[in-house]
Structures are given as C-alpha cells and as structure tokens.
Here is the input.
Amino acid sequence: MIYPFLSSTLRELQLFVRSWRFWTTFALVVLIFVFTGPYGTLESMTLGVRLGYWLIIHTITWAIAISLSISAEVLLRRHLSHTLARMMVGALVAALPIGFALGVVNYAFRGYWTETDGGLQRALIALPLCALFCLLTYVVTHRQIAEVTVPAAAPQALTGSPASEPQILSRLKPYNRGALVRLSVADHYTDVVTSRGHELILLRFADALKELDGTPGLQVHRSYWVADAHVEKLRRDKGRLFVVMKDGQEIPVSRPNLDATRMRFGHL
Here is the structure.
C-alpha cells in the first residue's frame, strides 16, 4: 500500500505545483512580507537578508503544510467524504513541524535558539496560517468545484448521467463526475473516464466494475469496460476487433469477448 499512496500523493502534488496561480500567490505573499518586514525584520535586517529570510520561511512552511494536506487528502478518502475536511486535517497537523522549522531558521539567521515553550507557541501561531495554506491548496487544485456545486439535477441534465449515480462516481473529484464513458486498468489504479474528464482512483478494476450499479455497458477486454451510450462503432484491423468510442478512442476487444461485443454493438 505504500507505493500506491506515494504514487497518488505525487500525482496530486504535481498537479498542484504546475498551477501558475500558486506561484503567483506565493511570490506576492513573499514580497509583502519582505517590504512590510513584520516581526521586527524591517528594523533588524537589510533588504537582501530580509528577502532571503522570508523566502526560506515561506518555502519551508508552505511545503510542509501543502505536503501534509495532500497526504491527508489521499489517506483519509475512505474516512472523510469532503476533500477540504481531509486536507484541513493534514494542514493542522503541519503546525507542529512548522513551529520547529521556524526555530531552526531563526537560529540560522539570528544566532539563538528559542526554548520549547517558544516553539510550541509558534506552532499555535502557525495554526491559522496552516489553515490558510490549506484553503489555498484547495482553491488551486479544485478550482472547478464551484462550477459544479449546483443542484444535482443540473449536472445530470448536462452530462447525461443517470438519475441515480453509480457508486464509483462518488470516488471522483466533483468536477470529474459525469456520465461514465469507459474504465481501464492503470497499474494499481483504475482510470475512470467520464463526459467531464478522467481520473485515476486507487481501486482494483474488478472492484470498480462492481460499483457501476447497472450502468449499461460491456467489458470488452480484461483491462477495459465501455459504456453503451458512448460507443460509435466496431472496427476490424488486421484480424483484430476494436470498439471505436465517440471521442475517437479505440478500445481493443479480447478474443473471449468477441461474440458478446459483436452482439452488443454489431448493429452500429
């Protein structure tokens, strides 16, 4: 389970750090601290030293808070249904290591080490900042959530999802929940493709098929399932049969599934 957890966490982090909104916000916050010089840094440090100090402080604190937020988001998926709640748990846990990290940076720049009480006090001060970092992470990585948090009937009408959504859709981020198009195997994950996008979920393919809840479709290969509504036609190439999806994707049909596939889609 360690490898899938690390793989999923790294995927989340990569999506996050590629966001220009994150880097723009980070740069603005650092500059604000550099030029306002809070906590006595304006008087005690030159501009260059102050820039280095606040750049290091924010790099360390943001990295700890965001990493723990995303780790908690992955670990707690089976226990907490709301993404922000999962991330907030990790962010608040981050306050303690952030308090210690602040002590180390202060020692490096100012030449003295604060006592344990000071470190705990900094951890308490860091709590609201960690919550702020968590909210920033949530906004950046899930910025489309606001577009889909409307009454359930609206997205179903737009995407063609059935009135009762398959259980597997509840595992997806809200902005990816739409009509099921196909499922495929991806290492330890199942790649779920919907009319709104696709997402890798940590679930065995066989278990994913059990969560389709009667969605009309067919497993055409040991690694692929396709939804009836999104199949365009069948195509044969060099003796092999393929299911052509409406989005242009071609799915191979395995030999044991040839007859069932022809019966299901041969009239298209």
